[in-house]
Design brief:
The chain is α+β, with helices and mostly antiparallel strands and 154 residues long. The chain has a single domain, classed as TATA-Binding Protein. The chain is built from five helices and six strands, in the order αααββαββββα. The chain has a six-stranded antiparallel beta sheet.
Length: 154
């Protein structure tokens, strides 16, 4: 019985270590979110809540934001970086695309959030955001909730 408990403990510790230390490859996660987002996802106009499309382990939205792409992404980057357990994986407002990694509090499961912006005119830009879980078949709605929060503050 003691051996079984030790084995279970070792497996859990190994899993937790792997989840927290598994490398995040920018080539895999820092991708164009417009390719993965449903093409019929309508743009949410200024001042309206984002229409968020979800799957079991991802969420996506396309919103209109004030200002050109750099300004919109810079504001979203500030919002993201103020989120606990979030780091920038790749990109910048100048590049027009940013990917962040946000980890869950207990296990440290990583979620990857990529935002890309395109300037429409001098006053507005279109921001497309894709959030997805790396592990598991369901994110329990965490990515949709995160997008709703971030985009409401954009």
């Amino acid at each position: 019985m003691t051996f079984l408990l030790l084995l279970i403990g070792a497996v859990l510790l190994g899993f937790a270590t792997y989840v927290r230390l598994a490398p995040s490859d920018p080539a895999r996660w820092h991708v164009d979110p417009t390719v993965a987002v449903a093409p019929d996802l309508a743009l949410s106009p200024l001042g309206e809540a984002a229409r968020i499309v979800t799957t079991l382990n991802s969420a996506a939205a396309r919103v209109e934001a004030l200002g050109p792409q750099r300004a919109s992404l810079a504001r979203l980057d500030e919002i993201a970086m103020a989120t606990p357990r979030t780091v920038r994986l790749a990109g910048s407002p100048e590049e027009g695309r940013i990917t962040w990694v946000t980890r869950s509090a207990f296990w440290g499961f990583p979620d990857y959030i990529t935002a890309q912006a395109m300037t429409h005119d001098v006053a507005t830009s279109e921001v497309t955001v894709l959030a997805r879980a790396r592990f598991g078949s369901s994110d329990l709605g965490v990515n949709a909730a995160r997008l709703k929060d971030w985009l409401s503050r954009l």
